[in-house]
Amino acid sequence: MYRFFVLIPLLIIGLEGRSQETKHRIYVGLDIFKNIPPLVDKQGYFPSTLIIEPIVRVELAKRLFLNVQAGYSKIGKEVIYTNLTHYRNEGGYLKTGVLYAVTDEDIPGRKRFGISLGLCLTFAHFDESGIAQLKGAFFGDLHKNYSHKGLNVVGVEVPCNLQLRLAHRWKLNFQPRINLLYTLGKKTFLDFPVYYTPGAGNNQMENELLKVPTTDITGGCTMQLFYRLR
Amino acid sequence: MVFMGKYGTLILLLLLALLNSCIYREPCDNTSEPYVYLSFYSDSLSSRYQSVSLLNTVHPSAHFNLFGNDSIPLSITSDSTVFVLESPTRKDTVGIGYTRYISYQARDCGLVVVMKQPRILGLTTIPPSNIRINVEPRERNGLFTRGHKTIYRLDISF
Hints:
The structure holds 2 protein chains of 2 kinds. In chain A, about 10% of the residues lie in helices and about 60% in strands. Chain A is mostly beta strands. The longest helix of chain A is centred in the first third of the chain and has 21 residues, at about 1-20. The two termini of chain A are about 35 Å apart. By secondary structure, chain B is mainly β. Chain B is about 5% helix and about 40% strand. Chain B is built from 1 helix and 9 strands, in the order αβββββββββ. Chain B has one helix at about 10-20; strands spanning about 35-40, 50-55, 65, 70-75, 80-85, 90-105, 110-120, 130-135, 150-155. Chain B is elongated. Chain B starts with 7 loop residues before the first helix and ends with a strand. The model of chain B is unreliable at about 140-150 (pLDDT under 50). Classes of the chains: A mainly beta, B mainly beta.
């Protein structure tokens, strides 16, 4: 009987230890970079910015993670093109996909630096507005309000995560990414392409590279802070 | 790049995507007003138009001498532009109507006004058989050519 009472706790401890090894890791994270540049440089990229982007990562199999991000973005800039001012963009987005850890940083006693590659599907639903101000030397200037609500953009994102384990449960993730975007439905009534897609960034290469008005390649980089729940 | 090993190529591609500002872009114009070419066909030197005056302008001097191969701006604030052609022996009013669209030109230049469905207005004093609007060859595919705002040529015979 005595041996039984000694063995039971040891068995529980042993099982707990084994379950710890096989437990699928879960991380929660938050983007900590996107709101910083506007605070530092008021005249820069997007002077008024509020972006909230929580992230959940669940380990599906060894080194394979499910990645889910949902975000809210509200940005503004006084001049985006030489003749389109008072630009505002507000909306939400969802990214979901898988990440594969090429090197795993979250193994105690081993490396603190890891790399993972991913493939995510993205969807953004947002509104854009601004004022077109076209100069006319002889007949005067043309001012026209531009507003388009309910824009939908789908896309594919390829992130590359460079991860650094900071402490037992904390890690920092530097993430460069490439996005391929497609604007659903008609273009805006002003007949110009989407300028900014929440969650993806500036639609920068339209016309210059792809020659397809509704398709874009964009890229960016950000920094995320993760906490390991289990 | 060396320390990244086989991931170097991927990171290089990511950086290339970010450095897209190296793409060449045509210079932008200071004004958004498109132009229309004027082409005159006449056997009579004495009746040749010598000047043109734009009506309803905000510019103080909207009067130009004509040299035979000229262009005049079109209004982007209304759906028509009216101008008066003058010669020593005659004076004609010409009105061009169109439908305006604001369109994206290029990232650096932003938006432009594109005129479509051009037509001669009824106030025109030149007989309809003597005036005709032609689309410039480079616009015939229906697409706006970036960096070029001249869209139409007005052929006038007298």
